[in-house]
Amino acid sequence: MKKIITLLSLAAFAVGFSQNFTPNQYPKGVYETYEDFRTKTPTSNPSLSAAMTEDQIAYRFNNLDDKGKKLKKAFAISDGENVYLHVVNLIKKFNSEDKGQGYDGGIYYLKAENKGGYLFVRDYFTSNSAAIWGGIIAAAAARRTKGVIYEEEKESFNLFRNMEEFKTFMQVNHPSVVLDLEKGKGDAKLDEGEIEAKNLALIKSA
Q: Cα separation of 127 and 135, whole Å?
């Protein structure tokens, strides 16, 4: 509820502000801190391996200038074509209402995409409270991708914890968008993160 009230009270700030994330806004290199990322100023530009992934969600990099060791701590990476955000460092930047999210574990980066002008990533975030109160079965049932956007004007990462929260965000900030929240069926079935990405992409055409 607190987050919904915050969305409503800050809606006026969205009027007149237009962001349009593109990877080329971030020069190639490693961004060690959020401040480096915020100012679009890479800390260094080592020789990195190509992005490695098995599921098109979690990506990893090796630093070829450091004996091929895995890059583990940087807030973000730009390989000149795409931008990737460190999952743990991203979670640390969630606002207070979005704290308490677990993830699959390990060290990896999430690939950023432009969805309706927003920098958008998604991952299998799970509420820690689901695991605490419901155990492993409840946590597994709650496992689904959830979307996160970077609201540059607020310098804030906004996690959509559920579809109702996403719906409120869109109604407040982009009321002209006709939402399509259908999940689909069978092989075409979408999870929450995919539905959010699909609807955010409608912003530019609304």
A: 11
H or E element that contains 38: helix 34-38
CB atoms within 10 A of CB 21: 19
By the 8 A CB rule, do 28 and 40 touch?
A: no
Determine the structural domain holding residue 89 and report its residue range. 2-205
The structure's pTM equals 0.86
For residue 83, how many other CB atoms are within 10 A of its CB? Answer: 26
- Domain count for the chain: 1
Tell me the pLDDT tens digit for each residue of 157-190. 999 999 999 999 999 999 999 999 999 998 889 9
**Cα 84 to Cα 108: distance, rounded to the nearest angstrom:** 9
pLDDT digit string, tens, across residues 43-84: 999 999 999 999 999 999 999 999 999 999 999 999 999 999
Is the backbone of residue 124 left (phi > 0), alpha (psi -120 to 50) or beta? beta
